[in-house]
Amino acid sequence: MAITTSQAADQILTDSLPVRRRTFRFRPGSVLVYLVLTIAALLTIFPLAWMFVSSLKPGSEIATAPLSVDLHTLSFNNYTALFSAVPMWIGFQNTFIVLIIQGGATMFFCPLAGYAFAKFQFRGKKFLFAFVLSTMMLPAIAMIIPLLLEMGALNWVDSYQGLVAPGLVNAFAIFWTRQQIADVPNELLEAAKVDGCTPFGMYWRIVVPLMRPALAALAIMTFLGIYNDFVWPVIITSSDSMQTLQVMLSNLATQINNSSPGTTGHDAWGMIMAASTIATVPVLVLFIALQRQFISGMLAGSVKG
């Protein structure tokens, strides 16, 4: 293949440039930063590592020597005893039902509401958005009694409807997506509109692909909020069959003693550590799988071009 004049000129210019060699420079400040970050990482990981190791230790050893590790005593006996004493699958089942319904509704409806507030003009828009923001200023604890009375009037106490309904639409999710969608150039939407694209088509084909990192971050925050929710599930549920995972973990010691009379507190602690380890796994897996999208979504919009 023949080389053009411009390519030859570029090659000569490249060859004439001096070669810069990378030199390592010792910077005490960088060493200090990495040292502090390493210590912070170890302090963060230590409780998780201790919880996992403790779940493999006999309960008596957790109480007498919590920081020691004897490899000869490590086993999965706490896990087998836990599953035989407590129906953990019920807590996981109820939690994931709430996650699928409530989380799915949040991820579908809230970005649509944010899209409407960001890109459409309609009567009462500012008032409605201000009303949505005002709901974020109310403490969650102040809404418990009115919500409980409402669920009682609808006969939804101790049911999936009562667990799911109050959190179907999240004001923060609407605000978050509205701020992200506002950065989408209007020219793209106008061009799609000229080509005959419907409003929902513009949202699905243009807006959603551009805000995937923000949606991933919202998905993780929604998952954590629902998965770790304790106050509302413990109030709205009364039967063991409707308990979510967090409620079941809070009553774990009582359930262990009821199912296995004579179980000592030491043995219960071993099973509690095993249950806590199992409950932590889904959160770790989700964050590890989506950590890049989560960080990108949290930083989206922080730098303006």
UniProtKB/TrEMBL annotation:
Keywords: Cell membrane, Membrane, Sugar transport, Transmembrane, Transmembrane helix, Transport. Its main location: membrane. The keyword Transmembrane helix applies. The chain crosses the membrane at residues 31-53, 96-118, 127-148, 160-177, 214-235, 268-290. The keyword Transport applies. It comes from Dictyobacter kobayashii. Pfam families: BPD_transp_1. It is found in: Cell membrane. GO terms for cellular component: plasma membrane. InterPro entries: MetI-like (IPR000515), MetI-like_sf (IPR035906). Belongs to the binding-protein-dependent transport system permease family. Residues 92-290 form the ABC transmembrane type-1 domain. It is a multi-pass membrane protein. This is Sugar transporter. PROSITE patterns: ABC_TM1. GO terms for biological process: transmembrane transport.
